[in-house]
């Protein structure tokens, strides 16, 4: 009797276990993808105006500060941006964990107007692209120590992506400050 | 013939499960011990770079496309990095398709990005598919002072200063001669590549075999089932022991 009951229980355990295993092995939610191209992002940001395209060349001081903000070497000798009045838009790449995240940052009057993930290539951590998270960056500006003046709430499981977006937001604010304040000869 | 005795059924299933998971269980035990002592065994220092293993991990050794331009060798090193002579300058998805030289700017077209370099090999900037580079761009060619990007079906005039692309249907493709035929890399640079090619540590391979990830989702599922069967094995073993105790008492 006791053994018969246990055998029935065993069958149930096997069935439940196999079912759970199958469910756990089901395909994971894929976070990666290209959500918007650079030209489409620029057109959307400045619509209906036609922004002017500009180039910020890196001198030693800009490069050093940019590398301090990112915490690693900056590739290239120049970076492109688009401007209309006091509003600038930047499309920058930064590694999350292993792959680059392409991030669009719009700055108006020295404050972040919007941040958008244009392409996310990691398989996990894509929650950073949700509007509710991105909304935190609105109104953020740069402190004297080149950090964001707002505290940004992290996302569990997407820490490195959050750090990457924070760094890019600060970098875009810094680049913006160089564009709006730099002498005409550098422009 | 089916046994009606539950104790006997239990023992039969215990034997069956034990036999079916024996090999995998032995492997799990040995690989687990090896992983626990990985630093002492220096498993992470042993690099494996056999072609089939790299191919299994999606790290095939692609043929190195090297081009000589302005007395400089431009090539992708097999690890998705663009090199100018011995220096890594930018990420570059293999293969390096084509190179060109115009107005003191060197152009290196990788699978999804066009890199603009100074004539001494420093990266100026990159122009990727995210920025508007057509997806099927196969080559870049300089004709006089004009640069053209050639896709499967179209020719575009490319302005390296504004990064603007303009379709040029009037240009005859046959009159353009892009540099797309790779050359043989000098021995010195070839030697350098041998040390920087893709490889996988033995620790990673054992860990992936241990978890089943080596065979993808199917492997993980199998290892999960083995784990479950080991639990059942313990329970059936316990039941067999209890029923034997009862028999002895009776």
Measured by residues with Cβ under 8 Å of the partner chain's Cβ, the largest interface is: A-B, 30 and 32 residues
Mean of the pLDDT scores of chain A?
Answer: 83
Please give the number of β-strands of chain A: 6
Beta strand % of chain A: 15-25%
Write the layout of secondary structure elements.
The complex is a heterodimer of chains A (187) and B (250).
Chain A: H1 2-24, E1 33-34, H2 38-46, E2 52-57, H3 60-70, E3 78-84, E4 87-95, E5 100-108, E6 111-120, H4 131-134, H5 159-181
Antiparallel strand pairs in A: 1-6, 2-3, 3-4, 4-5, 5-6
Helix pairs in contact in A: 3-5
Chain B: H1 6-36, H2 38-41, E1 47-48, H3 51-56, E2 66-69, E3 72-76, E4 81-84, E5 87-91, E6 98-102, E7 105-109, E8 113-118, E9 123-128, E10 139-143, E11 146-150, E12 155-158, E13 165-167, H4 187-196, E14 200-201, H5 202-211, H6 216-249
Antiparallel strand pairs in B: 1-14, 2-3, 3-4, 4-5, 6-7, 7-8, 8-9, 10-11, 11-12, 12-13
Helix pairs in contact in B: 1-5, 1-6
Please tell me about this protein's structure:
The complex is a heterodimer of chains A (187) and B (250). Chain A is of the alpha+beta class and 187 residues long. Chain A has 5 helices and 6 strands; from the N terminus they run αβαβαββββαα. Chain A has a 6-stranded antiparallel sheet, sandwiched between helices. In chain A, α3 packs antiparallel against α5. The radius of gyration of chain A is 23 Å and the shape is globular. Chain B has 250 residues and is α+β, with helices and mostly antiparallel strands. Helices cover 38% and strands 24% of the residues of chain B. Chain B is built from 6 helices and 14 strands. Chain B has helices at 6-36, 38-41, 51-56, 187-196, 202-211, 216-249; strands spanning 47-48, 66-69, 72-76, 81-84, 87-91, 98-102, 105-109, 113-118, 123-128, 139-143, 146-150, 155-158, 165-167, 200-201. In chain B, strands 2-3-4-5 form a 4-stranded antiparallel sheet, with no helix packed on it. In chain B, β7 and β8 form a beta hairpin. Classes of the chains: A alpha+beta (187), B alpha+beta (250). Chains A and B meet through α1 and β3 of A and α1, β5, β9 and α6 of B.
